Amino acid sequence: MPTGERILERTLPSSLRAELAGDIAVLTLNRPEKRNALNDETVLGIEAFFSALPAEAKAVVITAAGENFSAGLDLSEITERNTVEGIAHSMMWHRAFERIEFGRVPVIAVLKGAVVGGGLELACAAHIRVAERSAYYALPEGQRGIFVGGGASVRVPRLIGTARMADMMLTGRVHDAEAGQAMGLSQYLVEPGAGPDTAMGLAARVAANAPVTNFAVIHALPRIAEADPRQGFMMEALMSAVAQGSDEAKDRLRAFLEKRAKKVTEF
Q1: Which of 13, 77, 105, 226 has a C-alpha 20 to 30 A away from that of 233?
Q2: For residue 235, what is the domain's CATH number?
Q3: Looking at 19, 47, 132, 141, which residue is catalytic?
Q4: CA dihedral sign of residues 256, 260, 266, 267
Q5: Are residue 138 and residue 227 in the same domain, yes or no?
Q6: Among residues 29, 2, 7, which one has the least CA distance to residue 16?
């Protein structure tokens, strides 16, 4: 992992570390003694980080110190909130994670150990997930007498379907890394310890894309996928025209036609 310039030190809590490695920003969950459980301070720090990315950052990698990505909501912070306070608390998580999903640049999460409850909600806000074989997934809210509040009921069914999520919540079922990969919780499955380097390599490839294309993928694509087909086709046409009309797109297409760019080959 990078050892480059620290960023946002004045605004981040001690439960987070941030570094800049060239044009890749790295955010590390830094509460290993608590299995990187997410307290309010940490969630607000995540929001602050994604709200003030350095201009030179073209991709973000989220990783974690210790053996676990995140064991979820820090239950020691649960208080007897009234309904209005409970809604506000959930919406605070929504706001922070929307900064990831609909932020300025693509985000890659490195998953290992516990990816549980709020930890899974955080992971699902990223655009690409690299899971080490130690990763396991659970939504134990049903056994705790509570309900998901950080966006899981929206994001998780998009990846694995409503029925699988209901099973996880109703029965407490835990899925290992291989099952999670098969269901769609991760796009890459790697050996223990290989996650950070894999994610940094992917981030470098992402950062090399045209910014307008990356913007279209993270902002337009999910909206098109959820739209009525006729509206989706129109949004696609508009986004395609915007992208191909940029000077960078014209330069890249010219390079391909002049055989100065790499062709797609078998992996």
Answers
A1: 105
A2: 1.10.12.10
A3: 141
A4: negative
A5: no
A6: 29
Same domain, 196 and 227: no
Q: What is the mean pLDDT of the chain?
A: 91
Report the pLDDT value the prediction gives residue 142, as an integer from 0 to 100. 84
pLDDT score, position 145: 86
Task: Give the global pTM.
Answer: 0.91
Is residue 189 included in any domain, yes or no? yes
CA distances to 19, 63, 175, 195, 204 from 190, rounded to whole Å, are 23, 14, 16, 6, 18
42 and 101 in one domain? yes
Indicate which residue of 67, 121, 236, 258 is catalytic: 121
Q: Does the pLDDT of residue 263 top 80, yes or no?
A: no
Are 249 and 145 contained in the same domain?
no
Residue 121 designated active-site: yes
Determine which of 6-10, 41-45, 197-201, 243-247 has the lowest per-residue pLDDT on average: 6-10
pLDDT in tens, 173-214: 999 999 999 999 999 999 999 999 999 999 999 999 999 999
